[in-house]
Write a structure and sequence with these properties.
binds pyridoxal-5'-phosphate, D-amino Acid Aminotransferase, Chain A, domain 2, 372 residues, alpha+beta, D-amino Acid Aminotransferase, Chain A, domain 1, single chain
């Protein structure tokens, strides 16, 4: 889909308005590790409102609390809502650095375009999120593998019933100190390739980060979890043959020494971690390509002894080894269920860049200023 911004959306841009900050009267006690994933929320949230007449405005930071929404808000009724998610990490010098926030803001705006939500001015959103992270920086966890998770969300708030894009929106950003995404920690996970359910169709909204994609995945995922798997390996919705994504991760395989990941399409979320991993692999001189991978090929490679490694990538899951894959009643084990060397190297390398232990030639880290 075209990523350019149309005139209607450009008209909604607002110059950086002063952010109104209301501090929480009392600060919550900090949680102790292990944090789990998404169980704790910081003292404040950031909000921005959109009306057709005024565009995006009223940037605010307020104490954390519930939102009040019209019962027929299109965000509730028709799922006209989007979000994105990324992390900020404590650095060795005590500063806090967001990881590739520009890519996440750009993806939020691509999701917005697909869901008929007005574009947000990137600088405005960046400043709002930086101010929020600065204010709640005491929540940034310092133990390995943990981070401050940042979730910008936009929901259609206009109360009406007919089917058209809403005229009013609320953008809200919340923060959460997080640890491991999987209950298994960093141990290899067992996944099920579904030949029954699909996550996204060609021409649909699979490449947008919109809640409906996650709701659509729940039924099949719950059934898989009940059978002892941790995620679904989604195949393409047309031929039910090619790997697309695994749970909320992009998928990579290493077959006969070559690392491959499916090419992006409108049914795959363009992961920022995927992009980072491709870049790290290419810079290291590894053999890597973006090309379709058929599920049969994976099982054939296993039988031929050339299936070296399989892993998923994502902000939440970082780089997660996949130890077992089931499909149509057959289950294969990758590397005897152990984490492979490429998976481990990429995990270490990615965390080292994110946590400031490695240099950052690409400028992926963005330091959160002290606003005072
Ligand atoms: C469906 C889906 N695919 C892939 C990803 C990985 O994307 P990223 O690396 O930007 O977190 C996510 C997580 O955001 C996701 O929800």
């Amino acid at each position: 889909m075209n990523n350019t911004i149309g005139k209607a959306e450009a008209d909604s841009f607002v110059p950086a308005a002063p952010i109104e900050i209301t501090r929480a009267a009392t600060l919550a006690p900090l949680p102790r590790p292990p944090y789990g994933f998404g169980n704790h929320f910081t003292d404040h949230i950031a909000t921005l409102r959109y009306t057709e007449a005024t565009g995006w405005g009223e940037p605010r930071i307020v104490p954390f609390g519930a939102l009040s929404l019209h019962p027929s808000a299109a965000g509730f009724q028709y799922s006209q809502s989007i979000f994105d998610a990324f992390k900020a990490h404590l650095q060795p010098d005590g500063s806090l650095a967001m990881f590739r926030p520009d890519m996440h803001i750009a993806r939020l705006n691509r999701s917005a375009a697909r869901m008929c939500i007005p574009q947000v001015e990137p600088q405005m959103l960046m400043e709002l999120m930086q101010r929020l992270c600065d204010l709640d920086r005491r929540w940034a966890p310092s133990d390995p593998g943990s981070a401050l998770y940042i979730r910008p969300t936009i929901v259609a708030t206009e109360g009406f019933v007919s089917l058209r894009p809403a005229r009013d929106y609320l953008l809200v950003v919340f923060l959460s100190p997080v640890g491991d995404y999987f209950a298994e920690g960093s141990a290899p996970v067992r996944i099920l390739a579904s030949d029954e359910f699909v996550r996204a169709a060609r021409g649909g909204v699979g490449s947008a980060k919109t809640g409906g994609n996650y709701a659509a995945a729940m039924y099949a995922t719950r059934a898989a979890v009940e059978q002892g798997y941790s995620q679904i390996l989604w195949l393409d919705g047309v031929e039910r043959r090619y790997l697309e994504e695994v749970g909320s991760m992009n998928i990579f395989v290493k077959i006969a020494g070559r690392v491959r990941t499916p090419p992006l399409s409108d049914s795959i979320l363009a992961g920022v971690t995927r992009d980072t991993i491709l870049s790290i692999l290419r810079d290291s001189g590894a053999a890597v390509s973006e090309e379709p991978i058929a599920i049969d090929e994976l099982f054939e490679a296993h039988d031929a002894g050339t299936l070296d490694e399989v892993f998923g990538t994502g902000t939440a899951a970082i780089v997660s080894p996949i130890g077992r894959i089931a499909y149509k009643g057959k289950e294969i084990q990758v590397r005897d269920g152990q984490r492979g060397p490429t998976t481990q190297w990429l995990y270490d390398k990615l965390l080292a860049v994110q946590k400031g232990r490695d240099n950052d030639p690409q400028g992926w880290r963005v330091t959160v200023p002290h606003f005072g």
